[in-house]
Amino acid sequence: MYNLMTLLQNRFQRVYDRIHQAEQTCNRHGQVQLLAVSKTKPASMVREAWHLGQKHFGESYLQEALGKIDELNELSDIHWHFIGPIQSNKTRDISNHFDWVHSVDRLKVAQRLNDQRPEELPPLNICLQVNISEEASKSGIKLEELPSLVQSIASLPKLKLRGLMAIPAPETDIEKQREPFKKLAHLLNTLNDTFSLSMDTLSMGMTDDLEAAIAEGSTMIRIGTALFGSRFSSDKTTPTG
Ligand SMILES: *Cc1c(COP(=O)(O)O)cnc(C)c1O
């Protein structure tokens, strides 16, 4: 038997410590927001994390997410971020139930999210997912397509273009991890200058590379495993159901 609250509290504390340490190393104190990635984890765990003070949660699978959002709808000040692949026939549910989308990768999806955003809700916060390690992945926007897409999406009234997101190819060496993050940070600056925008979000860094991401200017790290445990069922510390 173990106490879920204590387990989560310890894991959150360890992640806060890593964030503070990384922020201090590069003089960026208090500039990094923690997005807790709760995909595959039960609503009960999200609720415990919320009680510990975590208010922003990332989800990748729409049906699963909608269940949790509904189950936890009495919690005030809870913010849902969609971070998974988007099918264009699913945009209505995303636009109706989320506050942020990090994984926009084409104009059609952005237009649908814009058109389907309910009138009474504030603009949907958007990050564009960039294919930053081009050889390793097929997901995300190609670098050469990014400027025109930014220009089109920036003008959609029910979307608020906040920045860029990337999932680089895995590397173990921190210097190697930093390269794609540096590239993404540079892209954000260039796009802001070129189109006179004020995008303020670099959604980059996960459990295994958050230090590298923070060193290169990440403003939001997306952490699953270090907070909620492994997503594989062999992890005995992860309650099911
Ligand atoms: C699952 C996921 C994460 C969390 O990854 P961890 O390595 O478990 O921290 C972050 N970002 C995206 C887009 C994900 O799908």
3D architecture notes:
The protein is α/β, with parallel strands linked by helices and 241 residues long. It has a single domain, classed as Alanine racemase (TIM Barrel, Alpha-Beta Barrel). The chain contains nine helices and eight strands. Strands 7-6-5-4-3-2-1-8 form an eight-stranded parallel sheet. Strand 4, helix 5 and strand 5 form a beta-alpha-beta unit. Helix 4 packs across helix 5. The longest helix is centred in the N-terminal third of the chain and has 22 residues. The protein is globular, with a radius of gyration of 18 Å. Bound molecules: pyridoxal-5'-phosphate (PLP). The site of pyridoxal-5'-phosphate has 13 residues, from strand 8 and helix 9.
**How many independent structural domains?**
1
Look up the CATH topology.
TIM Barrel
Mean pLDDT: 94
- Helices, by number, come to 9
Radius of gyration: 18 Å
Low-confidence stretches: none
The CATH architecture: Alpha-Beta Barrel
CATH C-level label: Alpha Beta
Report, as a whole number of angstroms, the end-to-end distance: 16 Å
Order of SSEs: HEHEHEHEHEHEHEHEH
Major beta sheet, specifics? 8 strands, parallel
Class based on secondary structure composition and strand pairing? alpha/beta
Ligands present: pyridoxal-5'-phosphate
Considering the protein shown, what is the CATH homologous superfamily?
Answer: Alanine racemase
Q: Could you tell me the number of beta strands?
A: 8
